[in-house]
Specification:
Blueprint: H1 11-60, E1 69-73, E2 77-85, E3 90-93, E4 99-115, E5 120-133
Antiparallel strand pairs: 1-2, 2-4, 3-4, 4-5
């Protein structure tokens, strides 16, 4: 037969043990929650940085005088742009004198990077030079009438 002192945990002792465990787990839960949130923000920042670098590389190849607006699908996201003229097109100067083959102008280009679900990852503005060939090369050694 057991004595009363060895009867095991009483209900009050079990409640105290659960309370102590809960008090210890609350900070751990807060730490895990903060860590998960930080990882999510870091992941979003990495995706935005990747999107910005990709958009800048795409925009290096875009001539706003030829294509003032457009969309390029890059798989994970799309790059959209719209360019507006900042300076009137001017004739390119040819060294050492004369007029070149192109007209050139400065554009302000608004760039937007969106996911496939149309969530905007980033928006930025940049200035670009545009050019358009408006003249043909005249060969200086060509005989008249040729």
């Amino acid at each position: 037969m057991r004595s009363k002192g060895n009867a095991g945990f009483a209900l009050l002792e079990a409640i105290v043990a659960i309370t102590i465990m809960a008090a210890a787990l609350v900070p751990i839960y807060g730490l895990i929650s903060t860590s998960v949130d930080a990882v999510r923000r870091l992941s979003e920042a990495n995706l935005q940085t990747e999107a910005n670098f990709s958009a800048l590389e795409v925009m290096r190849a875009v001539n706003p005088m030829v294509t003032p607006e457009g969309v390029i699908d890059m798989g994970k996201f799309r790059v959209l742009w719209r360019a507006e003229l900042l300076t009137q097109p001017l004739d390119q100067l040819q060294y050492p004198r004369g007029t070149g083959l192109y007209k050139v102008a400065l554009y302000k280009t608004q760039v937007k990077v969106v996911t496939s679900g149309d969530h905007v990852l980033s928006e930025f503005a940049m200035q670009q030079f545009g050019n358009l060939r408006v003249r043909n090369l005249q060969a200086p050694f060509a005989a008249p009438g040729q």
